[in-house]
Specification:
This protein is an alpha/beta fold. The protein is built from six helices and five strands. α5 links the parallel β4 and β5. The longest helix is centred in the N-terminal third of the chain and has 13 residues.
C-alpha cells in the first residue's frame, strides 16, 4: 500500500558505478519508484531533459561530465532547476561540500556511510 504512494514518482540515478546503479535501481523499484539510470553526467542530462524526474540522485566524480557540471547545467535551466537533487558521492572533503553548497541540493550523502534504504528515506523526505 505504501509503495503505491511512490509508484508515480520518477527518480534519475546518475552514477558511473554499475554495481551502485544496479543496487539502487533495485531498491527504488522495490519501493515503487519509476527509475531511470545514467552512466555519466552527459547521459544524465539527456535523461533528465527527456523524462523530467521528480528527483535526481547524483554522483560527483564521473567521466564525460561531472556532477558539478550537471548541477551548473540544471541551475541554468529555468525548468530543470526546480528538480530536487541529492548528491551521493565518495568525496568526503570540505572543498567538495562547499562547491556543492553553491547549488540547490537537498542532501550531501557519502556512499560508504549511506545504505540504499537510507537513500530511499532521504528521497521520500525531499518529496
Amino acid at each position: 500500500m505504501e509503495n503505491e504512494i511512490w509508484s508515480k514518482k520518477k527518480i534519475c540515478i546518475v552514477d558511473d558505478d554499475p554495481n551502485l546503479r544496479e543496487i539502487y535501481m533495485m531498491k527504488f523499484h522495490q519501493e515503487g519508484f519509476d527509475v531511470s539510470l545514467a552512466i555519466n553526467g552527459e547521459e544524465g542530462m539527456k535523461s533528465i531533459r527527456e523524462k523530467k524526474p521528480d528527483i535526481i540522485l547524483l554522483d560527483l566524480q564521473m567521466p564525460v561530465k561531472s556532477g558539478v557540471e550537471v548541477l551548473k547545467e540544471l541551475e541554468a535551466d529555468q525548468e530543470l532547476c526546480k528538480i530536487p537533487v541529492i548528491v551521493l558521492t565518495n568525496i568526503d572533503n570540505e572543498d567538495a561540500f562547499k562547491t556543492v553548497g553553491q547549488f540547490e541540493t537537498r542532501f550531501y550523502l557519502i556512499k560508504s556511510l549511506t545504505t540504499p534504504q537510507q537513500a530511499v528515506d532521504y528521497v521520500r523526505e525531499v518529496l
